[in-house]
Q: What sequence folds into this?
């Protein structure tokens, strides 16, 4: 079983009028579809934005596969 990490990038919601964070459903769907064959964790950078925390989590989990999602409006911030 591979360790899979699915990441929801920070959407920079401060620049938007509504500062609402939504559950990354696409990652939940994908994680659910593969959880019978892989160990899956989802990390939402909108909930925890601190790079140090993310790097510690990433090193501790040591994923074999990493995936992330992005909307067109956040693509520049993701890269």
A:
């Amino acid at each position: 079983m591979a360790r899979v990490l699915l990441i929801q990038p920070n959407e920079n919601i401060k620049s938007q009028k509504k500062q609402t964070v939504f559950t990354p459903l696409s990652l939940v769907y994908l994680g659910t579809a593969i959880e019978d064959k892989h160990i899956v964790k989802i990390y939402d950078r909108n909930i925890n934005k601190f790079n140090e925390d993310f790097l510690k989590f990433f090193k501790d989990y040591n994923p074999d596969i990493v995936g992330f999602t992005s909307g067109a409006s956040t693509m520049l911030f993701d890269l």
About this structure: The longest strand covers residues 2-8. The first helix runs from residue 25 to 34. The beta strands are 2-8, 38-44, 65-68.
